[in-house]
């Protein structure tokens, strides 16, 4: 019978103080560092004004392009409207990839995170190694790895299962996600006060029951904001798939530009791409901030 | 040191199993990969140094009394924080790079003034620098005025207060956030692949295109990056632990 999870740091009362040694800026910096360490990337800080700036850039550049092109050519906004279905279908693809990668990453990452707090040393060390490995590998290299090394179809007997490039990209993007989810889960479990473990042990729960009925339900609240932040980072990372040739929005934008062959369209089309990502990510960012504020641990 | 046993082993491995480690036994591929590795290290080191300089200067400018100086620095941070680094790289290389004057090289071709390596350095340094400005500023803000007053009361002059009291404290406060940013920067150097900077990913790509040994080179590449980043993470964490302030935080 285990008395106390060994992998959690003991509460070090001797090293803490109530005196304000440093100003609140130090605390906010430390919190930010801890959050970024969990996510493995820095978060953008979105503001509604950014959306306005993007819209302004789109309209102004369209106007400038229109003025330069002269009367004989099709208006820029009309061109944009004509290609809108293609671009938006590309964007939908980004969202589908991000959803699937997040789902796969969360499923595997949660198990990996729970393995990291296992009482068996081999399981703990093994899952720690896998987590660190995928956390420290650059996203682009993992993406290349999956794109080139997974087969384009699987043959099981006579059955041929096709494996298109976007599925491979999804797998490639889910690898860093699962490592970061694993860290988020581990961090959340470690942030639950040890009193919770001890109290539930004294009520004769076994380890599985403690984890599933007491610790994890409390963790969900703490994991939700970083998990959503990770999703925002993943969504923005889906454009990396354009480097390896998946037909998502960035690739489609390049194709539209090639088809139109008008250099004046460059800025309007790319600012439209940025605007789409902003419109999608901004509500998520606001919601995350609101959740963070609501779930803030009060000590 | 004699490495011929390793070359023979790799050649034997190829004949026996078909695992083709050209970057071990073929001197041309070996040199290419080594150059790529060194370029990645070189690119990372230059960007690390420049981004720190940008961070310090930016943090200093943000404390300026002039409103517009502060606004410009704020705008710079907002721009680089909220756009993807790949877009920034393209913007610098294709948009600004094409506006730069060109000069004739010795083969009689027009050559841009700054090459792609320089643009990668500039773009990545500004990207990481934007984060560093905020980090350094919060670090300096975290030092209470009472600590500075105490130093003054002990007879330190302004420079000494800065050198012996403010900076050591601020640096320790900054370090965890700074580490994350620098690790992130090293990972982001792979994006330089997109503008054909001959760093490790690009060189590996050329090797597997020429020698058709994608799985071998790819696996090596993945492990090389994990090794590089892991080394940096480990070094920074031990530095962080060594500089830990007793009595502050956990």
Automatic annotation (TrEMBL), chain A:
<feature type="transmembrane region" description="Helical">
    <location>
        <begin position="267"/>
        <end position="285"/>
    </location>
</feature>
<feature type="transmembrane region" description="Helical">
    <location>
        <begin position="136"/>
        <end position="154"/>
    </location>
</feature>
<keyword id="KW-0029">Amino-acid transport</keyword>
<keyword id="KW-0472">Membrane</keyword>
<keyword id="KW-1003">Cell membrane</keyword>
<dbReference type="GO" id="GO:0043190">
    <property type="term" value="C:ATP-binding cassette (ABC) transporter complex"/>
</dbReference>
<dbReference type="GO" id="GO:0022857">
    <property type="term" value="F:transmembrane transporter activity"/>
</dbReference>
<keyword id="KW-1133">Transmembrane helix</keyword>
<comment type="similarity">
    <text>Belongs to the binding-protein-dependent transport system permease family. HisMQ subfamily.</text>
</comment>
<protein>
    <submittedName>
        <fullName>Amino acid ABC transporter membrane protein 2, PAAT family</fullName>
    </submittedName>
</protein>
<dbReference type="Pfam" id="PF00528">
    <property type="entry name" value="BPD_transp_1"/>
</dbReference>
<keyword id="KW-0813">Transport</keyword>
<feature type="transmembrane region" description="Helical">
    <location>
        <begin position="230"/>
        <end position="247"/>
    </location>
</feature>
<dbReference type="InterPro" id="IPR010065">
    <property type="entry name" value="AA_ABC_transptr_permease_3TM"/>
</dbReference>
<dbReference type="InterPro" id="IPR000515">
    <property type="entry name" value="MetI-like"/>
</dbReference>
<dbReference type="GO" id="GO:0006865">
    <property type="term" value="P:amino acid transport"/>
</dbReference>
<keyword id="KW-0812">Transmembrane</keyword>
<feature type="transmembrane region" description="Helical">
    <location>
        <begin position="91"/>
        <end position="115"/>
    </location>
</feature>
<dbReference type="InterPro" id="IPR043429">
    <property type="entry name" value="ArtM/GltK/GlnP/TcyL/YhdX-like"/>
</dbReference>
<dbReference type="InterPro" id="IPR035906">
    <property type="entry name" value="MetI-like_sf"/>
</dbReference>
<feature type="domain" description="ABC transmembrane type-1">
    <location>
        <begin position="91"/>
        <end position="278"/>
    </location>
</feature>
TrEMBL record, chain B:
<keyword id="KW-0472">Membrane</keyword>
<feature type="domain" description="ABC transmembrane type-1">
    <location>
        <begin position="37"/>
        <end position="233"/>
    </location>
</feature>
<feature type="transmembrane region" description="Helical">
    <location>
        <begin position="40"/>
        <end position="63"/>
    </location>
</feature>
<keyword id="KW-1003">Cell membrane</keyword>
<dbReference type="InterPro" id="IPR035906">
    <property type="entry name" value="MetI-like_sf"/>
</dbReference>
<feature type="transmembrane region" description="Helical">
    <location>
        <begin position="218"/>
        <end position="236"/>
    </location>
</feature>
<feature type="transmembrane region" description="Helical">
    <location>
        <begin position="113"/>
        <end position="131"/>
    </location>
</feature>
<dbReference type="GO" id="GO:0022857">
    <property type="term" value="F:transmembrane transporter activity"/>
</dbReference>
<keyword id="KW-0813">Transport</keyword>
<dbReference type="InterPro" id="IPR043429">
    <property type="entry name" value="ArtM/GltK/GlnP/TcyL/YhdX-like"/>
</dbReference>
<dbReference type="GO" id="GO:0043190">
    <property type="term" value="C:ATP-binding cassette (ABC) transporter complex"/>
</dbReference>
<keyword id="KW-0029">Amino-acid transport</keyword>
<keyword id="KW-1133">Transmembrane helix</keyword>
<dbReference type="InterPro" id="IPR000515">
    <property type="entry name" value="MetI-like"/>
</dbReference>
<comment type="similarity">
    <text>Belongs to the binding-protein-dependent transport system permease family. HisMQ subfamily.</text>
</comment>
<protein>
    <submittedName>
        <fullName>Amino acid ABC transporter membrane protein 1, PAAT family</fullName>
    </submittedName>
</protein>
<dbReference type="InterPro" id="IPR010065">
    <property type="entry name" value="AA_ABC_transptr_permease_3TM"/>
</dbReference>
<dbReference type="Pfam" id="PF00528">
    <property type="entry name" value="BPD_transp_1"/>
</dbReference>
<keyword id="KW-0812">Transmembrane</keyword>
<dbReference type="GO" id="GO:0006865">
    <property type="term" value="P:amino acid transport"/>
</dbReference>
<feature type="transmembrane region" description="Helical">
    <location>
        <begin position="83"/>
        <end position="101"/>
    </location>
</feature>
């Amino acid at each position: 019978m285990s008395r106390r999870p060994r992998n959690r740091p003991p509460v070090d009362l001797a090293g803490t103080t109530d005196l304000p040694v440093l100003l609140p800026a130090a605390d906010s910096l430390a919190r930010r560092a801890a959050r970024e360490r969990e996510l493995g990337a820095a978060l953008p800080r979105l503001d509604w004004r950014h959306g306005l700036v993007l819209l302004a850039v789109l309209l102004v550049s369209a106007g400038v392009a229109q003025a330069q092109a002269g009367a004989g050519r099709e208006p820029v906004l009309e061109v944009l409207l004509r290609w809108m279905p293609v671009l938006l279908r590309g964007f939908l693809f980004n969202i589908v990839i991000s959803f699937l990668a997040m789902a796969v990453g969360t499923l595997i990452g949660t198990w990996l995170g729970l393995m990291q707090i296992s009482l068996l040393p081999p399981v703990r060390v093994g899952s720690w190694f896998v987590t660190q490995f995928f956390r420290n590998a650059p996203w682009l290299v993992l993406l290349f790895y999956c794109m080139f090394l997974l087969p384009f179809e699987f043959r099981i007997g006579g059955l041929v299962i096709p494996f298109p490039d976007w599925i491979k990209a999804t797998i490639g993007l889910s690898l860093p996600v699962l490592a970061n989810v694993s860290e988020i889960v581990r961090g959340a479990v470690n942030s639950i006060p040890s009193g919770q473990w001890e109290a539930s042990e004294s009520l004769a729960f076994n380890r599985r029951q403690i984890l599933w009925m007491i610790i994890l339900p409390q963790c969900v609240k703490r994991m939700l904001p970083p998990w959503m932040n990770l999703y925002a980072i993943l969504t923005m990372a889906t454009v990396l798939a354009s480097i390896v040739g998946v037909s998502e929005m960035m690739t489609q934008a390049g194709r539209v530009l090639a088809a139109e062959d008008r250099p004046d369209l460059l800025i309007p089309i790319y600012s439209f791409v940025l605007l789409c990502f902003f419109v999608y990510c901004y509500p998520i960012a606001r919601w995350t901030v609101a959740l963070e504020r609501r779930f803030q641990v009060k000590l | 040191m004699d490495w011929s046993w390793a070359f023979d082993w790799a050649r034997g491995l190829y004949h026996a199993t078909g695992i083709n480690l050209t970057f071990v036994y073929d001197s041309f591929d070996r040199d290419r990969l080594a150059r790529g590795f060194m370029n990645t290290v070189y690119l990372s080191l230059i960007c690390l140094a420049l981004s720190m300089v940008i961070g310090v200067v930016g943090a200093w400018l943000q404390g300026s009394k002039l409103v517009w100086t502060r606004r410009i620095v704020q705008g710079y941070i907002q721009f680089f924080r909220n756009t993807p680094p790949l877009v920034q790289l393209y913007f610098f290389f294709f948009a600004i790079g094409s506006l730069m004057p060109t000069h004739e090289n010795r083969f009689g071709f027009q050559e841009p003034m700054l090459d792609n390596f320089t643009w990668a350095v500039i773009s990545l340094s500004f990207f990481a620098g934007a984060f560093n400005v905020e980090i350094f500023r919060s670090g300096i803000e975290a030092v209470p005025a009472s600590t500075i007053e105490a130093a003054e009361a002990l007879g330190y002059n302004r420079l000494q207060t800065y050198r012996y009291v403010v900076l050591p404290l601020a640096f320790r406060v900054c370090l965890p956030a700074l580490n994350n940013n620098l690790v992130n920067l090293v990972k982001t150097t792979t994006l330089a692949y997109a503008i054909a900077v001959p760093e490790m990913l690009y060189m590996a790509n050329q090797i597997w295109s020429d020698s058709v040994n994608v799985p071998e080179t790819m696996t090596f590449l993945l492990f090389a990056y994990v090794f590089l980043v892991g080394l940096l993470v480990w070094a920074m964490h031990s530095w962080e632990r060594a500089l830990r302030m007793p009595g502050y935080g956990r």
